[in-house]
Amino acid sequence: MSLPSESDLSSRAAAAAAACGVDLSAAGGAQVGRSPVNGLPVSSLAWSTPADVDAAVARSAAAYDAWRLVPAPVRGAVVRRFGELLREHLDDLATLVTLEVGKIGSEARGEVQEMVDICDYAVGLSRQLFGRTMTSERPGHRLMETWHPLGVVGVISAFNFPVAVWSWNTAIALVCGDTVVWKPSEQAPLCALASAALLRRALVDAGFSGDESQVVLGDAAVGMALVDSPAVALVSATGSTRMGREVGPRVAARFGRSLLELGGNNAAIVGPSADLDLTTRGIVFSAAGTAGQRCTSMRRVIAHSSVVDAVTDRVAAAYEKLPIGSPLDDGTLVGPLVNERAFASYSTSISAATTSGGSLVVGGSRVLDADARDAYYVQPTVVRMPAQSDVVHTETFAPLLYVLAYDDLDEAIALNNAVPQGLSSSIFTQDQAEAELFMSAGGSDCGIVNVNIGTSGAEIGGAFGGEKETGGGRESGSDAWRAYMRRATNTINYSGDLPLAQGVTFDV
Ligand code: NAD
């Protein structure tokens, strides 16, 4: 396999960024971004200072004063234009996603398609920010609720969905009347600058200042400055549970709102009646796709003892054939891990699993290291585990799948729920009663509970997020928009009298 050279990557990145309106020749700074594709530099930019963050928040707050009063369908029209620009520049943004985080072409384009989809959704939503009307206990009175914008929304995003997560938050926040300051992953600044340039164009073309969308670049320290800013009404933070533990209490301490989308440890139960062809395809996409670097990646298979050997063999056979290589090459299905740290955690977890009694079924090694010393390609790996030991309770952000056996469905559900995370889960079964039980209050405790489909690859129409250490936030579809607004309850008296609630009398 041949990996692209540094100048090849840099020139592709510069061309894609330029097409989106970002001139990298005018940029430049001390922070070098490395591409996971070959481990070589792909960007060098300056990071924001705390003063830059304050200034961005101040511009956002000033823009909010006007934006909140713009009719929601007019705000929706700006998001519609943004969606059109995303359609036009889908390949440019997808190229940047591949270069900065290593996604294969199809998945990178899928990520940008998700941005387009959420824009379409948000445009419709801009005419549907409904409140309820309630009956009053008093004659001649009416109760209703009205939804208003919140203010400045701070978005902190993870490397593995470098643009889609921002767009889920931003398209919805904008139609809700909020303005947004984005601190993207330090791994993907070019993706952020290019996406934000397209949004700015949509805003400015429609006669707005463009300040409704701001970007600050940098690492956790820059994220912290956003988290601590009292002018940021909502902090929507996507990343590891470690990050959420730091962010959540700090936002709560200033009575801000937070929306946390954190780590997952997602399992599929495979019942005795499962269609094993479909199950195998579902497992392989969820566990090995994106090189195991989705929050919803499948990390555990809990298979009935009557099928566990067959499932393991089929998954292993599929893994042996998976093309691993440069995500820029057609035909590659498994690209690189993001960096050396990710490779270290892959290796450490495999050792911990085998030390605690697991047996390696397939994979376990780094590949292509002779082609690129600083890029980390690994074999998707399956380890058969005798029990759900400590390492299985931990999210390892790599293509590492543990297989466990069960005899009784209650035992399988208990294993599914025994981990600290609660993002996504699946059951593969042809038995309707098993599927219903898994989706019931006595079933999976996750935010996403699927039947005959893997744990990853959610659509934007549903609310996305999970429970327990996954943080409890919900984003994207359904009624997730409510997190970006505040509710006012209105009581209107048209009776000409003043009866008090609960029969209280207070005659003056
Ligand atoms: P990370 O936690 O290292 O970083 C995520 C973001 O948070 C980055 O922008 C980072 O700069 C910032 N950050 C880190 N510490 C911070 C702090 N103390 N204050 C403010 N900002 C801080 O995560 P990552 O390696 O980029 O992404 C992988 C993780 O993200 C995995 O755990 C994955 O499961 C999770 N993830 C969750 C979802 C979800 O929707 N639940 C989606 C994508 C990724």
TrEMBL record:
<keyword id="KW-0560">Oxidoreductase</keyword>
<dbReference type="InterPro" id="IPR016161">
    <property type="entry name" value="Ald_DH/histidinol_DH"/>
</dbReference>
<comment type="similarity">
    <text>Belongs to the aldehyde dehydrogenase family.</text>
</comment>
<keyword id="KW-0520">NAD</keyword>
<feature type="domain" description="Aldehyde dehydrogenase">
    <location>
        <begin position="35"/>
        <end position="487"/>
    </location>
</feature>
<dbReference type="InterPro" id="IPR029510">
    <property type="entry name" value="Ald_DH_CS_GLU"/>
</dbReference>
<feature type="active site">
    <location>
        <position position="261"/>
    </location>
</feature>
<dbReference type="Pfam" id="PF00171">
    <property type="entry name" value="Aldedh"/>
</dbReference>
<protein>
    <recommendedName>
        <fullName>aldehyde dehydrogenase (NAD(+))</fullName>
        <ecNumber>1.2.1.3</ecNumber>
    </recommendedName>
</protein>
<dbReference type="InterPro" id="IPR044638">
    <property type="entry name" value="ALDH7A1-like"/>
</dbReference>
<dbReference type="InterPro" id="IPR016162">
    <property type="entry name" value="Ald_DH_N"/>
</dbReference>
<dbReference type="InterPro" id="IPR015590">
    <property type="entry name" value="Aldehyde_DH_dom"/>
</dbReference>
<comment type="subunit">
    <text>Homotetramer.</text>
</comment>
<dbReference type="GO" id="GO:0004029">
    <property type="term" value="F:aldehyde dehydrogenase (NAD+) activity"/>
</dbReference>
<dbReference type="InterPro" id="IPR016163">
    <property type="entry name" value="Ald_DH_C"/>
</dbReference>
